[in-house]
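Protein modeling request. Please complete all fields; requests missing the sequence field cannot be processed.
Requester role: graduate student
Desired output: 3D structure, token encoding
Chains: 1
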Amino acid sequence: MKGFVREIFSSLQGEGLLVGQRMTFVRFYGCNLSCAYCDTQDARSRTGVLLYKNERFTNPVTIDSVCEKVGDRVVAITGGEPLLQKDFLTEICLALKRLRKSLYLETNGSLPGALEGVVDHFDTIALDFKIPTATRQSQMWAEHERALICASQSSVFVKAVVTNDIQVSEIMKVCEIIARVRKSIPLVIQPVYGTRITDLLDVQERALDLIDDVRIIPQVHKYLGLK
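Delivered output (227 residues):
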């Protein structure tokens, strides 16, 4: 089986609960959304080559060609949106598990049906809740809730990227959904890189009235000048 991969590289995790942990990142091509703050625009289509250690490889690529480039114990599958290539993703996961890798999925939380087919393969899931004021797109609360119910079988946290236009009501909606599933699921509020957002502490305090664990974590890798 073959699939479309944008790049493979080793770095530290710069977002969410596992900040600072070394991982190999496998970035899939293709995305079903177009968020205003997206910092991986070149991964949205399925065209282009795989980049690995400054070398360029022709897509589509095989499972073996991906696995042989993975060196770290933890592998982050990211995108784009990996769930758009569910069959290829499943085979990648099975192969990496045979190599005793720990698997971390980053998903935009909009494809709960696809997530149901692969959730058992992942040790940790970072599930985005897309905030309309940040994405400039329609809300997807129903899809996010279904995805979170599915992901709650694994170790999961919710990430909400926010901008200066943040509406407290949106964060409260996120917290209400989390509370309905399991109020101990952590929420990471992630300001868009380079923005200064006032009243974040107040937002965090209000969110903690609804769920147990709310953290404000920026994109640390960008502040460190890393990929």
